[in-house]
Write a structure and sequence with these properties.
By secondary structure, the chain is mostly helical. The chain folds into 2 domains: 178 residues, no CATH class; 156 residues, Phycocyanins (Globin-like, Orthogonal Bundle). It has 18 helices and 2 strands. It has a two-stranded antiparallel ribbon with strand order 1-2. A hairpin with a 2-residue loop joins strand 1 and strand 2. Helix 5 runs antiparallel to helix 8, helix 11 runs parallel beside helix 14 and helix 16 packs antiparallel against helix 17. The radius of gyration is 21 Å and the shape is globular.
Length: 365
């Protein structure tokens, strides 16, 4: 049982978990052009057991295994250090990722909170607002359930010792999500999509650690209040920064295409989201160690493998920080300036290994 001194800390953690869970809601906006009565009827049917079974038939075990294997094969083509993966290693990675997806789909069917949405709400709420009634339930339980499988996946993905496993994992999961989506219709995609997005971000973004770091702050404290206010703006901030970044480098081609290509846009937005979670984790911890020891290392290795020179990464970092600062109130700037300055300093002072830079210049002149 929590005593009175622990309750405020538990409250801050719980509040950030709620913000985390709120990220994963269906987006029905793309369905607005269709006849509302048909869309609402289909959503209602999918919320019943037969609807769950229909999704299970499309995303059955064999389909998931086949898609995961195809995604693993495609993912290795984006990373220099993974080009020599053999069929046995690819099969192992595919099997591990398929276990993760099958566990995720089982959770979706057995824990879905969408059944609490009434037929009246479906009939009368605008589609855009209707999506706000849905969210991934028991997000901490789901994270704990998937953690052992993800840990094993990460171990097997550590093909090299330079830390590129995270980039490879997120690329493989992103490709798997896209391939599985092709098996579903638009309404099914809207309902299952939040779970797939959760999986990809759960691997890449240190949300749990950030929530845990909030335990050392009071609910009414200025640091916690700032973080809680900024987190819901994360996707909007990432989009603004990426749009400017891609405009500043319109002709640069990575191993996944130009910066404004759909695939690169998706991965870049996820990475800008990851950057912000690391930034607020550092802010809550009161030091920049996690930026220096983790985020910079991830960016150098993964972006280098993808064909993005370090100078472009630093420029993207500056754009993102400037966008974050532009969203702050004047009194908040004094709180966060030290954190953002330290972060930018760590990035700008991180040297590019000459051999890595030469390799990039040869591959991507």
């Amino acid at each position: 049982m929590l005593n009175s001194s622990h309750r405020p800390q538990a409250e801050t953690v719980s509040r950030l978990v709620d913000v985390w869970a709120a990220r994963y809601r269906p987006d029905f906006s793309a369905l607005e052009a269709n006849a509302r009565s048909l869309i609402v009827g289909e959503i209602y049917q999918l919320l019943q057991a037969p609807g769950f079974n229909a999704i299970s038939k499309k995303l059955n075990q064999q389909k998931v295994v086949d898609v995961c294997k195809l995604a693993a094969v495609r993912a290795k083509d984006f990373y220099v250090d993974f080009e020599d993966l053999d069929l046995k290693e690819i099969t192992t990675l595919a099997q591990l990722s398929s276990c993760i997806y099958l566990q995720l789909l089982e959770f979706y069917q057995s824990h879905s909170a969408v059944l609490t949405v009434s037929e009246w709400e479906l009939e009368h709420f605008p589609l855009k607002r209707l999506g706000q009634l849905f969210k991934v339930p028991n997000i901490r339980d789901l994270a704990s359930l998937l953690r052992p499988l993800i840990d094993e996946f990460q171990v097997q993905s550590s093909h090299s010792e330079d830390g590129t496993a995270l980039g490879f994992m997120t690329t493989q999961i992103s490709l798997t999500n896209a391939l599985l989506f092709q098996e579903l219709d638009s309404v099914q995609q809207a309902l299952v999509g939040p779970y797939f997005r959760f999986l990809e971000e759960h691997i890449a973004l240190p949300w749990q650690r950030m929530c845990a770091a909030a335990a050392s702050h009071r609910p009414g404290g200025p640091v916690f209040k700032l973080v809680k206010r900024m987190l819901p703006m994360m996707s909007t901030i990432s989009l603004a920064a990426h749009t400017q970044w891609s405009q500043d480098f319109p002709y640069h081609y990575t191993r996944r295409g130009r910066l404004d290509s759909p695939e690169m846009r998706h991965s870049s937005l996820r990475d800008f989201n990851m950057f912000q979670v690391y930034l607020w984790l550092s802010f809550l911890q009161g030091h920049a160690k996690v930026i220096e020891n983790e985020l910079v290392v991830i960016c150098r290795l993964v972006y280098g493998q993808m064909g993005i020179p370090w100078e472009m990464t630093v420029h993207g970092t500056q754009l993102l920080i400037d966008t974050v600062l532009s969203c702050l109130e004047p009194y908040e700037l004094s709180l966060v300036t030290a954190c953002t300055s330290d972060t930018l300093k760590v990035f700008t002072q991180s040297e590019v290994v000459p051999s890595e830079l030469k390799l990039l210049q040869l591959r991507y002149p």
